[in-house]
Amino acid sequence: MRGTLKQRWSLDEIFHGGSESSEFKHFLMKLEEDISKETATTIESKELKSISGFERWIEQMDRIQELSTRLLEATHFVGCLESENVEDEKAIILSEKVRGISTQFEIVINDFEQTLVHIPDDIWEQLLQLEQIKPIAYPLHEKREKAKGKLPIVQEKLIQDLSINGYHAWVNLYNSVTGKTKIVLEERSKHLSFGQAYNILHSSINQHTRTNLVNALNDASEKVAETCAAALNNIAGFRLQVYKHRGLASDSILREPLRYNRMSQTTLDSMWEAINQSKPVITSYLERKAHLLGVEKMNWFDIYTPIGKVTKTYTYEEAAEIILTEFNSFSPKLADYTKRAFLEGWIDSENRDTKASRGFSARFPLTKQSRIFMNFQGTPNNLAILAHELGHSFHQGIISNDVPPFAQLYTMAVSETASTFAETIILNAMIKDISDEHEKLLLLEAKIQSALSYLIGVQGRFIFEKDFYEVRKKRVVGVDELNHLTAEAQKYAFNESLASYNDFSWIWNRHFYFTDKPFYNFPYTFGFLFSQGIYANALQEGSLFEKTYIHLLRDTGRMTAEQLAFHHLGFDLTKQEFWEKAIHVVLQDIKDFLALTEKLDLVCCNGRVGRE
Fold first, then answer.
1. Is residue 285 part of a domain?
2. Where does residue 598 rank: exposed (0-12), middle (13-18), buried (19+ CB within 10 A)?
3. Residue 341 in domain
4. Which of 4, 10, 231, 563 could link 345 by a cystine bridge, Cβ 3.0 to 4.6 Å?
5. Does residue 612 register a pLDDT over 90?
């Protein structure tokens, strides 16, 4: 591509006029009206007793799928409006409006899922063989099984009503308390948010600054610990009571998250065991980094400390060219799709004061486009983030074409597959192409740090949450015990290779306080390693890979994780072989890091790493 690329997206192709769009307001009005009509639609039980009586039910199912597509279009549009200008009050009002419509649609979905339970098993099996049902047979079966595990609809609605003040209110309290908490860093005369404090902690190469900041974080944590412990205990307690009334009290606490992520306990166990077997090599990396930082053992806050700063930068046009070239070597269709995103104004990468700080890719299923949001400042990390979001966008583009809406809903476990795969392509290309060996080392270390956050950091959080729920079944868990559970989980995850552990991480990891689902952790590890396994497979298959990859992405919403891997890659996720192959990619990076640090003969001087 030649010339200067636009760095601001255009939303007018979705709805013209931004937050003042009359087109969008009419769209919402009609959507709300149609959802209201659907709420009043009832399917009589007698109509579900034979195949011949299913005509009205199939018509309703088609309408619900169409409504879900329209709602997603609206949800992502207001999300883009809010992100491109955080001061747009009209966008905030629209967002509240869409949330209200979404709540109404949930009632429609719940009622629809309950009708599935009343279909006799023999009729259900015949129903799944109908041509118009086959493409969504798996998600429909999944919805039916989910509904079977619920209470009668009146009681489920009661749970939803009670959860507002008995469940979600604890989350609101947690968010309020931690959001108002300021970490005082006296040497900079600043009061920092937790996010700002962690950014400094992970970027500063000054040991004195990091130590002072950790002390300040601990002081702040002690002040809010009792309140956060109450919130965490009551969120978990409410969830466990719901499980009890649904008849699931004796089941594993992992039943719900495993079902949600369409994977088995055996697969999860195989993944963790493969990671455990890789720890000797991972420990050698931690030991080498401790040596480079001039300490016998690293503290928890040293792990992600950079050993230097990469000076290499890229223009936006250079970044686009690198991404297109490297994507094309793996998948010309991925490259063509990406070129369209750059040229047609799908990406907002400009730095503006009024922009949100996050990055995302938003799917518009009606328009069959995506919009990508990030702040590009020319760093290698920016390049990797841009590739990551383009990977998400490509996945979204694949499932938006000729895949029914019910089959477009993929799980968190596979949601990061295409994005991390795309990011890996670019990270490896940058490491390979950079000529300065010291900068190559810094890029390699950044890649390893990211991998370890998935492999080791997430494992520690998973073990803590699992142990916490087991104790919570018996009693309320106090602050001291929460600290102990956290430290023990981290010791196991890091193979006891650190000098200290982050006792208060249970406070600041907001995923523990999510109410939509527990265990917002292991799916990240799964997604990362699944993408690494796909990358290794791509290197072996060469030009044959693209077709396999696209078919795999298309099926992410209508297969279990195990079915997806076996059908498209020939791998059994319940065995360690696949996970070992995926982890090998990370272990090779570590071996390259060890060899390069030895070659460069690096030493530590006042917290800075350089050549002898």
1. no
2. exposed
3. no
4. 10
5. no
Residue 367 in contact with residue 24, Cβ under 8 Å? no
Confidence (pLDDT) at 605 = 44
> Residue type for 450, please?
S
- Residue 40: partners with Cβ closer than 8 Å, 6 or more residues away: none
As beta bridge partners, residue 419 has: none
**Pairwise CA distance, residues 197 & 185, whole Å:** 9
**Contact by Cβ (8 Å): 207, 607:** yes
Query: Whole-model pTM above 0.70?
Result: yes
Single-letter code of the amino acid located at 489: A
Alpha helices in 570-611 (DSSP H): 576-600
Q: Which domain holds residue 24?
A: 18-163
pLDDT digits (tens, 9 = 90+) for 376-418: 999 999 999 999 999 999 999 999 988 999 999 999 999 999 9
Q: Record the tokens describing residue 398, joined without a space.
A: 């694949």
**CATH number of the CATH domain containing 54:** 1.20.140.70
Residue whose tokens read 């149609």:
34
Positive or negative: CA dihedral 423, 427, 433, 436: positive
104 within some domain? yes
Number of compact structural domains in the chain: 1
pLDDT of residue 1: 67
- Within-domain flag for 49: yes
- Which residues share a beta bridge with 169? none
Listed residue (363, 480, 345, 354) closest to 418, CA to CA: 363
Task: Indicate the helix (H) or strand (E) that contains 188.
Answer: none
**Residues 20-29: pLDDT tens digits?**
999 999 999 9
Q: What kind and span of H or E run contains 575?
A: none
**Please, where are the H alpha helices in 204-278?**
207-245, 255-260, 265-277
Contacts of range 322-329, beta carbons closer than 8 Å, 24 or more positions apart: 322/383, 322/426, 322/429, 322/430, 323/383, 323/386, 323/387, 323/390, 323/426, 324/1, 326/425, 326/426, 326/429, 327/387, 327/390, 327/422, 327/425, 329/425
Q: Please choose, from the candidates 233, 259, 104, the residue with its C-alpha nearest in 3D space to the C-alpha of residue 167.
A: 233
pLDDT value of position 353:
84
Q: Per residue in 49-92, pLDDT tens?
A: 888 778 889 999 999 999 999 999 999 999 999 999 989 999 99
